[in-house]
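chain below, 265 aa
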Amino acid sequence: MKKLLIAMLSVISIATFAQSPDFPDQNIELLEGKELLLKPLDESSQKYGYKEFYSDEAAKKIYKKGSLFTKYSALAGKTFKVVSYKPEYSDYIIKLSNPDTGIIYYKYNPTRSYDFPFKVIGGLTFPENFFCKYIISDRKFDYDKAEHYYLTHSPCTEDICLYEKEKNYWLHVLITAPSDKRETGLKGVKFILENGKEVSFPNVDVSVTASLSKYDYSAEIRGLKPEELQLLAESPIIKKIVGTKEKEVENGRVIMEYIKCMTKK
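prediction:
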């Protein structure tokens, strides 16, 4: 059992990729007619500016170039209308319109969700089962039983991961907090849903581990019941609470879709 737990935790450490609810992947047509709000860059990246914005459709001339890319001040906080798009080898050139900038162009890579700098106003309408392709099934070996098994899991999104083995489901959830005070002996996990409902696990133990200058408060919720999974598949999580620590969840819709994929009949 100990070796099985180690194997599972090794999956947690690598399964951190998560699909953004604003990223259409190869389905660029989902952006047609949408308004895109440019997200702010972190302070250390602002001196380099925004990547892949151009003045010309051929994507040769960087729009208002600064030290490396487009000056941060030239685009920060602006909203753009998607006018059209066209393929460019394995990428796409998206034509954007804004009252201040006029027409400019963004070079879109459909494989790099972490580089996509926009928030889609009103969100994207994804096809049914769109997120199911991100669910992972790994063949593992149980040393105690001397047999192979399959461990299915979702990408860890905002430190919330769902696992399944032979129709047994469990969740791993984590919150990182400042290390000014280490709290021990904590219990309980609660998820607040967008529809106003709550899914609560008051008796779950909370583990605390040091993480650089912070502490990680984590819990495993085993033996999830069908009714608990159904609630989590019906509405996005908007807040997670681990012991006394709580944090807003931005990508709850993605987590909900993963749960739907893994629990569908």
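The CA atoms of residues 177 and 215 lie 5 Å apart. Confidence is low (pLDDT under 50) at residues 1-17.
thats it, cya
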